Amino acid sequence: MFAPVVNRFDIYDLVSQNDTLAYMETMKAHPAWRKWEEAARAEPWIVPEDEV
């Protein structure tokens, strides 16, 4: 599954099936995911139009 899709499913709480949730947790535990998430959180810029 594409990482941004897993992220959106998680952030917006769109999934309730246990097998899918387990897959998402496996993806989020992967070192590449953690590196991607860490880099995203470190980005200093904000797009004002995207803020609600």
Describe this structure in words.
This protein is an all-alpha fold and 52 residues long. The protein has a domain at 1-26. It contains 3 helices and no strands. The radius of gyration is 13 Å and the shape is flat. It starts with a helix and ends in a 10-residue tail after the last helix. The model has no long low-confidence stretch (mean pLDDT 92).
Helix content: 55-70%
Give the number of helices: 3
Number of separate strands: 0
Low-confidence stretches: none
Average pLDDT, rounded to a whole number, is: 92
- The H-and-E topology, N to C, reads as HHH
Query: Distance between termini?
Result: 28 Å
Tags for this entry?
single chain; 52 residues; 0% strand
Summarize the structure.
The chain has helices spanning 3-11, 18-29, 31-42. The protein has 52 residues and is an all-alpha fold.
